[in-house]
Specification:
It is a single chain. The protein is α/β, with parallel strands linked by helices and 389 residues long. A seven-stranded mixed β-sheet has the order 1-7-6-5-4-2-3, with helices on both faces. Strands 8-9-12-11-10 form a five-stranded mixed β-sheet, covered by helices on one side. Helix 3 runs parallel beside helix 10 and helix 13 packs across helix 15. The longest helix has 20 residues. The chain is globular and about 70 Å long. The protein starts with 5 loop residues before the first helix and ends with a helix. It binds pyridoxal-5'-phosphate (PLP). Pyridoxal-5'-phosphate (PLP) binds next to helix 4 and helix 5.
Amino acid sequence: MTRTSDQDLTRRFGTRAVHAGIVADPLAGAVMPPIYQTSTYIQEGLGRHKGFEYARTRNPTREALERNVAALEGGRHGFAFGSGLAALDASLKLLSAGDHVVSGENVYGGTHRQMTHIWARMGMTFTFVDGGDTQQIADAVTPRTKMVYAETPTNPMMRLCDLEATGEIAKQAGALFVVDNTFATPCFQRPLEFGADIVLHSTTKYLNGHSDMVGGLLVTARDDLAERIGFLQNSSGAVPGPFDCWLALRGVKTLGLRMRQHDMSGRCIAEWLTHHPKVERVYYPGLPSHPQHELARRQMSGFGGMISIELGDVERTKRFLERTRIFALAESLGGVESLIGHPASMTHASVPPAMRAAMGLTDSLVRLSVGIEDVEDLQEDIEQALADA
Ligand SMILES: Cc1ncc(COP(=O)(O)O)c(C=O)c1O
């Protein structure tokens, strides 16, 4: 099990991103942690080894990533997985049949699918509520509730969960509070500081930032939980390979720089879109018109590059999605390149239509992942695509 060093936790964010978790390379003094592309390690004699026995259990490249992201979140222990959904799988394996989970309804479609199609079949029960409504969360708690699960901002409706208030509800209930921090990243929001027990990431997204690997991560500050998650990581075995860990670690080093650009362009494009005659509604927590803008300012230090827009007409939406030239029509988000997506048929296709409708996730909703290209080019691209739509 990895542990962040005290020294890493005394440093500021940008310094942590570059240095946290990196240990000196004993062989050549390599500045970047080597890719330990090995499945096993030589033992000097029976029971005598350097602490590494088998790569599912421990890998030095993976551990560098785990320590790094744990330090960025202000946690103590990180656990890397083969995808964000594998990290979710491990967090839900902390519970047992009969246990109850209160979850935000507007979570990533794959999160909802895993909960309802796998864990519900295994005997766990779920209540999905508006995660932005603290009272609904409190009302959904039962004596069997063992986890409160939140995504904030949510994908794709950009609703926020009040982290402090929800953390308190979970604590009172004796339930774990798990927060998916994929959209905000620790650059702009650190849920552990607001009472979360576990932070979840799809490292596929902003942490890696270059759309060239798939991965997930859990972070906790609690030693007792770390013991149990470490056991699950090794026993279920959904670990990432060392090369993917290395790619994620390389990406994380520039997280602060990239997030500043995503945020600047995100704010600029969101504001501009509010005045666009072809856009009916803009969902972005950085806009003063966002119903939870004050909460966003309290618990986030930036708003990032994720924006959803309502175009009001399905045919126009299709034309718009197919006409952008810089924004690539693709699943995923958080890379340096701008992406555009249609949540109803792509990321959230597995969410039942009635539930999508109740959340406002219509067939004419478009999600933009604003990259780090020049913002003027991005605006011109949206403009020409909307003009034709
Ligand atoms: C907010 C959020 N959480 C979790 C996931 C799942 O991550 P992965 O695709 O790495 O399994 C995604 C994927 O899009 C996501 O957007």
